Amino acid sequence: MRPDPFNPDRTPINRPYEPVGPNYPLYDAETQSWSFGTDEDEAPAERPRRRIHWGRWIVRGTGVGIILLVLAIIWLAVTAPLSRSLQPPTPPSITLTADDGTPIARRGAIIGAPVDAAKLPAHVREAFMAIEDRRFYSHWGIDPRGILRAMWHNVGSGGVREGGSTITQQLAKNAFLDSDRTAGRKIREAMIAFWLEAWLTKDEILSRYLSNVYFGDNVYGITAASKHYFGRTPDKLNIGQAAMLAGLVKAPSRLAPTTNLKGARARQAVVVAAMEDAGFLTKAEADAVQPQRVLASRPETLPSGTYFADWVLPEARDQAGEIKTEATVQTTLNPRLQRIAERTVRSAGLNQAQVALVAMRPDGRVVAMVGGKDYSKSPFNRATQARRQPGSAFKLFVYLAALRSGMTPDSTIEDEPVDIAGWKPRNSDGRYLGKITLRQAFARSSNVAAARLTQAVGVKSVIKAARDLGITTPIANEATIGLGTSTVSLLELTAAYAAVANESYPVVARGLGDVKDKGWYQALTNRKTGFSSAVHDGMLDLLSSSIKTGTGRQALLTVDAYGKTGTTQDSRDALFIGFARDLVVGVWVGNDDNTPNPGLSGGGVPARIWRAFMQSALDIPPVAAPVVEQEVDPDAIANGMEEETLPIEGDPVGDIIQGMGLDLRTGEDGSITVGPGRRRPDRAGPPPEDRRPPDERDGEGEE
Q: Is the full-model pTM beyond 0.90?
């Protein structure tokens, strides 16, 4: 009888028999015989489960925890001043000295009386909690949610934009720790925060925080800040004033309303929005908050307040390591050179225009700084804080990129009009010389040549040259950068020229004599790179030609000098930056409101200020000007004005006698220079209307 193919008990071919009952056949392939077995014979014996002695592990864990706690207490007792843990820290007092030890500035903190947070209006406490630590009254010193939120925002923004520290952690850091950003310090900070939470109430922690936090202008504590900025006590602060003070904590030096009212008001709005988001204010209450006014700042009498001291003070505090007692820090300022710089600026006769001057050694040590004509009237430092277009002074990086690509000063470039994707730069004097050498192009500051070079070597190569020499401000990825359309500070640009003088890059401007070791990572990333001899010699050749035969002739010295002029469109900014011997000096002249200065050019007033400073600083005689016809400054022609509209007081250069189509100009030594006649500004008619589209005017007026 044929077996049923659907019989489930039938064993398929080539498959071992499966048990079908209590006794089933077993086939031994080795002996080729059958036997019978049972499930009990073949079933593996069940292993007894191992019991976990939870009590034993709990005891062990508790013991380890106790040991770690004891070790932590010992560690804190050794590394943190717990004996003064509940005492408010002494705010820093610092004296800055020149390189010869002479005191140049003294800064003492304004210390406010301690406050009781419980007695302050609710909106004062809530302003700080909303922006610094919303869950202050619910966490135990560390806020995991805040840390995770900060990490998420930082990852999203590609950098450290937000911190997750609680108010308790900030008090721990301010009271006990230095400013080093190390893992060990963060661990100590967290442990001290737990310690403070265990020994103090929340109101006591908040009171100590508000009594000691820094609010800018060297003011510590909310009592001092309230009086300094608003002329009232903390219990009289309105919502807007409390929000502004809370907003200062993030960046007190940068946001102090006495120097940056716009930034402080913007931060105030952020805090008010945070208070509304946290439920501390209703929408109507938030909308009713107005931008706050502050008391007028009274400039400190010299020598307590100078441009250089303001610039170097944050760095001095960092070097002193969050000093808690009076300290003296030596700077790089040279008193003699500083006096020469101030005297030179005073004698410049600038009328309404402002001026800035920076002098440094080739290694970046700043020896003199002037940030404006009068610190008492305007403490804004135009040498370090202002970001202005450098004009043709930026061509340093264009020609550096060209030399790196294999060109030499004798290589040629077309000095003819060019169209680069619709951008049509032109020379400011309207003249084009055809094929000229790079040396000639650099000396006469040809705009079209710089544009052609930028196109030839590539915009990225020019940007890389600028970055290598230390320029950190944003640079647009477009061909127009060759004419200096991206903004930069005078200090940073001068440091870039110092790299050429130093024969290595980058050079970082600094104001302290001693530089602390920043660790192995900084040592690796901040290593200097030297120029090749061909590139360095070529750069010196170009920079020398600008002074000897080009737009920088008014900066000529009796010693070897190197530099470059820069003039932006409509003569809004004029610069001269160069070096001689062991001094690198940058000079800027312009208006704070960025309005035009007709007739101003980098080869005029800035070059003469540079020359006057260098002659006194290096103690060298003036140049005896030869009686020769000079090439007309292209910027002066482009603006239809004489370049000598802002002569230095006592400088005879600029006295012009006109007649018979000739201009006679008197030199410093009494010599007379004969040049082609030019119409005086008061005789010149209105300039012809420029009918070209705006995109064809880029770079005009730039030297």
A: no
Q: Which of 202, 138, 201, 205 is nearest to 175 (CA)?
A: 205
Q: Which amino acid is at 502?
A: N
Contact in structure between 93 and 325 (CB atoms under 8 Å) = yes
Question: Annotated catalytic, 132?
Answer: yes
Identify the sign of the CA torsion 296, 106, 223, 132. Answer: positive
Identity at 453, one-letter amino acid code:
L
Q: Write out the DSSP string of 56-88.
A: HHHHHHHHHHHHHHHHHHHHHHHHS-GGGTTSP
In contact, 517 and 415? CB cutoff 8 Å: no
Based on the residue annotation, tell me whether 629 is a catalytic residue of this protein.
Answer: no
Catalytic residue among 132, 189, 342, 643: 132
Q: Picking from 138-142, 212-216, 222-226, 294-298, which range would have the lowest pLDDT averaged per residue?
A: 294-298
Residues 271 and 265 sit within 8 Å (Cβ to Cβ)? no
Choose the catalytic residue: 165, 211, 392, 546. Answer: 392
Q: Using alpha carbons, select from 79, 281, 86 the residue that is nearest to residue 189.
A: 79
- What confidence tens digit (pLDDT) does each residue in 570-620 have? 999 999 999 999 999 999 999 999 999 998 999 999 999 999 999 999 999
Would you call 213 helix, strand, or coil by DSSP? coil
Residue 689: CB atoms within 10 A of its CB come to 5
Angle, helix 395-404 to helix 533-548, in steps of 10 degrees: 140
